[in-house]
Hints:
It is built from 29 helices and seven strands. By secondary structure, the chain is mainly α. The chain has five domains: 24-167, Alpha Horseshoe (Serine Threonine Protein Phosphatase 5, Tetratricopeptide repeat); 169-247, Alpha Horseshoe (Serine Threonine Protein Phosphatase 5, Tetratricopeptide repeat), CATH 1.25.40; 248-358, Tetratricopeptide repeat domain (Serine Threonine Protein Phosphatase 5, Tetratricopeptide repeat, Alpha Horseshoe), CATH 1.25.40; 370-450, no CATH class; 629-750, Heat Shock Protein 90 (2-Layer Sandwich), CATH 3.30.565.10. The chain has a five-stranded mixed β-sheet, with helices on one face. A two-stranded antiparallel sheet has the order 1-3. The longest helix is centred in the C-terminal third of the chain and has 122 residues, at 452-573. The protein is elongated.
Amino acid sequence: MNPTRLLLLFFFAVLYARAWAIEPFYPKYGLQDARRDQKFLRSQVADTTQLYRAIRLSRFHVYKPGQSKPDLDSAYSFYTIASQICNKMNAPRYRADVLNLLGAIVHERNDISGALALHQQAAALARSLGDLPREAESWYLSGETELSGGSKDSPHYQTALRLYSKAGLPERQAYVLCRISLTQTFNSQYDAALRSSLEALKLYQSVHYPRMRYVHTDLLRINRDLGLYSQALQYGLLAIDESQKVRDTGHLAGCYLSMGLLYEQLGDLASAIKYQKECVNAGIEVANASGVLNGTRFVATNLMLLGKTREAGRYFMPIFRQFPPRSLGDSLIHLSVWARYYVFNRQLDKAVPIFQSLLKHEDNLEVYIQNYGELTNLEIAEHYLKHDRWDRARFYVTKAAQRAASSPRTRVDIALRIQKAMYLADSAQGKFASALEHYRMHRKLSDSLFSVQKSLQMAGIQVQFDVKRKEQDITLLTQRNRIQQERIQNQESQRKAMIGGTAMLSFLLLSLYVQFRNKQKSNQELTLHQRVIEDSNARLMRTVEEKQMLVREIHHRVKNNLQTVISLLESQAFYLENDALAAVKDSQSRIHAMSLIHQKLYLADNVTSISTQAYIEELILHLSSSHSDSGRIRIDVQVEPIQLDVAQAIPLGLIINEAVTNIFKYAFPDDRSGDMLIHFSQNPDNQYTLHIRDNGIGIDTAADQGKPGSLGMNLMKGLTHELGGTFTLKSDQGVAITVQFAPLQHYWENHA
């Protein structure tokens, strides 16, 4: 985006910030409202309550200051929910609201034509339904969108105004009139702007509108630009008074700034500085960086014009450090103040390049900052005059005069300064006739600006305002005096109660001291007992550690003994054949299952429980490696990492040993291949489940050892009974064994 476009967008945002941020078209809606709506939003429920929750949440994000992507993404997300709810409801009149919402989102993405098309589509839909308020709203939003695209005016405002009037909604009608007045001011149509604002004022008064401070501020600005200073001051004081009553600090900052400009135009720089400083303070309170910088610019400039350059530096430098430039507009404010500061400190070599840089923007900014060209050129000319550089001064004052002549309305105070500069330049260069003419114009403007009648009017209105404030102060002092008298009476009663209270307090303190001594003695005894308990605990801890070491050694020796038994069985198996050999090998597997548990416990810190995941996986690996035909069987082990008590781990390991051994032996005869699943988990009802299944030949054709009643089957059932669980066997495209049992604590609770 080029610099010119950035400037246009920045100053458009400044101009229209009041209507969007301070006096919103939609009801005020803050962060707490958004959190509440988001908490109760139910996208699956299709009713108007949920629809407008989604619409309000989307508006909350789309109308936030700035154009951040997260906000726009959130706005679009809630728009999608609103659109889906609207489709489910099949209510065309709400579709206009959804279209306008999408138009606002598209507008924030800088797609002006797309936004206009959506708003006008919403207007057409509302018109087809005879819905005047929604049609008017759509045209109003079209006007806002059109202006943000660079247009100076929009006929859509007039359409919205006519429809709101026809619908009998005077408050909305007045609001649109204020927007029209603002565009008319923007286009220097001050007389028309005044008529629009006064008409809006009457409509607001007819409905007893509570926030009149906004239209009063508009009337302050318009009357000031028209040179109707008495009326401007009257409306300004009303706006300040109303804003103070409701503590609207954000709007109060704008009122103070406008009042400062009014006094500045009247040449009363001291009063202007007073209001402009209030503007800066209010801006800091509400964290409005642009407002703070703008107010600071006026304060610093006027202090320098009064010859207080050092005071100006002490004022603006800390504020500029606190509020560095974050936009092109902020940078221009910083540059303009520093340029004036260098000039007043006679550092023209630093000031002139900055002024020339600022003048590059005068054609673009003249539309957005009234009299920008005149002021900048005039300030350069005035400072060349101070240094007797007459030609350069004449060049810039001539440019200022040309700008003033082409401007629809130039401020009287600026025209006064131009005539004075022309008079001084002509006098210095011997052009006395021209100098005399400029001097006469200067005197004429001065007389018109500081006439006795205006001074009296201004003084009268200010006195009325001061009297009103003093009356408020007197009322406040009276209330404070009454409260003070009541406090004196209360103090007398309190004094009498204090004497009795002191005696009771002394007795209470004595009692507390006795209790403290007793408690101190008890604490000493408790400390002694505590030491004895701590010594006992230390001995117990040593005993526990010794016991754990002993248990670990026992597990180690049991494991070694079981390994010895396995070795003896292997030696014995060398001399056995057929069934006897198979029985010995089964016994070896069972003993290995128990030995593996003792090995795990010996190596672990916890000697009372074992990790099922590591244990079962290692057991299955051992069983697989013990059978030569295991390569034909694909094994899937799914075990949760559960800490299982040793008392339950041994029966569980033996059950797994029996089931898996039977699968290897009997499920896949004749070199068949297949799948085996071993699954162990804990259910939501806190029950353990062991599930082992294969897709082999099934129980009906299994070998005798696999049939119910065989040793392996009886052993699994007996071990399940020992666990306090249930044993289930099913044969359907293979054999499935399921064992369910409770954790050890639950087992004893259920069998106590």
